[in-house]
Amino acid sequence: MMADAVVTEADAMWGPMNGYGGYGMGWFGPWGGLPMIFFWVVVILLIAVLVRWLLGGVSAAGRSSPRDAEPSRRALEILEERYARGEIEREEFLRRRDDLKGKG
Description:
The protein has about 100 residues and is mainly α. α3 packs antiparallel against α4. The longest helix has 21 residues. The protein starts with 8 loop residues before the first helix and ends with a helix.
């Protein structure tokens, strides 16, 4: 013998679960999609920061990555080679070296 189903006034008017097909509105009511959107925005931003850091951009802490120092080291080596070959004078060498080291 089957139990008789109790039909409330809300079930009669809106159907089961107030018209949401038995699923209700979820934990966040009508804003249920916001946590999902927030999650994906955070994931995409983390991937962008990781890619930028791996390609030698600014690190997550805001400091330059170690790869940024490489071009200035190479420039200083070229400058020293030019000075050693006599292509530039001492004063020019010292001025350019200070510029490269940021003492300018």
